[in-house]
Amino acid sequence: MKTTAKASTYLTRAVLASALLSATTQAAVLSSLDQVTDPDRQIHKRLELYGAVRLSMDYSDSDVSADEAELGTGFSDGDFSVSSNTSTIGFRGRTPIAPGYVGIWQYEQQVDVDHEDDGDVWTTRDSFVGLDSPLGTFLVGYVNTPFKNMGVRYLSYFNATVGDGHALLGAPADGSGRRIDLRGANSVTWKNDRGPLRAAIQYSADQSGDDGKVDDNSRDSLSASLQWEYKQLQLSGAYIHFSEAIAGMDELDAYRLAAKYKIGRLQLGGVFEDIDARGSDAISREAYGLQLLYSASRRWVIGGQWNHATDSEAGDDKADQYSLGVFHHLTDQILLHAVATTTRNSGDAAYRGVDYAHGDDVGTLPGRDPWSVSVGGQLKF
Which terminus, N or C, of the chain has the lesser number of Cβ atoms within 10 Å? Predict the structure, then answer.
């Protein structure tokens, strides 16, 4: 009886330790993602300076010859590079107005630490003025679409690394670099949490920017998302409609669904998206993927993911992306990583090997298999 009791005690302790371990490591990365997807919830003081420095050393190959590497931007026949990924700096603050009502604001820009960039000007990233109220949070400005935020939450540790899944998700097969995971320009956003539900709706009056003129509502967009959590299960969905916000497309509708489930130290995830674009067959297709994260210890996480894009309406352009990563929480503010990724293009597909939040894109030619390995980290302040 004593042996059985001891075994039961040890088992209980092991389960609790495993749950605490998973919660600790996941909480750290979720805090980093919340700054990207829910910046309004990170404002706690009257005035704050904040940011993130993300640097990495990469070796990338576009699966092209030396002569072919000269044909396009982002092509490489095998090169070492230093990237700023998505390094940022910003100011934000809050001003109480009345009981239950708080004015909030944020100005944020991307900073290319590895080189000089004339494009580093204020408000290149989420920048807004808003109101936090009992009816929800209202934001006016330049803010991530709910559709984009859902994708970033799903990516978790792979966000802003060479393994960022947006090399396929939300991207066309032609390798043009266009994407539908954008910020809403000239936008009004409403967000609200009610128990296990998290909802968001955004209307962008002019996705192309008004350039000092009246917003052109024929270039508007509408996006919404809904997330539900129950114990270890998380389900989310998002929708977006663009009138003509992306070059070469007359109109676009897209849906995205995702699920995550935690089992002790293991987290399983899956994503599905369906894009219908009038005026661009190369992005009209379905895509789906799987992700696995394992908390090996209190500060070490091992991850793997696979994303697949089906043949688009253009035909014969399906592709797969495979990524593996090891992540180490050196401190609560410093996250180190080693990530390898490759994109396997078939037929006419030219999905990039690396795209989106990583600073140095890796393009390729149709039917080629670009790849990249990266060692780096991020410091939050």
Answer: N
Residue with tokens 């590895």: 114
- The total number of residues written for the chain in this structure: 381
pLDDT digits (tens, 9 = 90+) for 149-179: 999 999 999 998 999 999 999 999 998 888 8
Residue 100: DSSP 8-state: T
Closest listed residue to residue 170, CA positions, set 86, 254, 260: 254
How far is the C-alpha of 239 from the C-alpha of 151, rounded, in Å?
11
The 10 Å Cβ neighbour count of residue 13 is 10
Q: What is the pTM of this model?
A: 0.89
Residues of the chain with pLDDT under 50: 2-4, 7-8, 10-12, 14-21
pLDDT at 31: 58
Given a contact cutoff of 8 angstroms between Cβ atoms, the answer to whether 190 and 215 are in contact is no
H or E, element range at 143? strand 136-144
Please provide the DSSP assignment of 87-127 as one string. -EEEEEEEEEEETTEEEEEEEEEE--TTS--TT--TTSS-E
Tell me the angle at which helices 146-155 and 2-37 cross, rounded to the nearest 10 degrees: 140
- CB proximity list for 328: less than 8 A, separation 6 or greater: 299, 300, 301, 335, 336, 337
Contact 358, 164 (CB under 8 A): yes
Burial of 116 from C-beta contacts in 10 A (0-12 / 13-18 / 19+): exposed
Q: How much of the chain is in helix, strand and coil states, percent to nearest 5?
A: 15, 45, 35
Q: Concatenate the DSSP letters of all residues of 147-169 into one string.
A: HHHHHHHHHGGGTTSTT-GGGTT
* Rg value, the chain, Cα: 21
Distance CA 332, CA 54 (A): 15
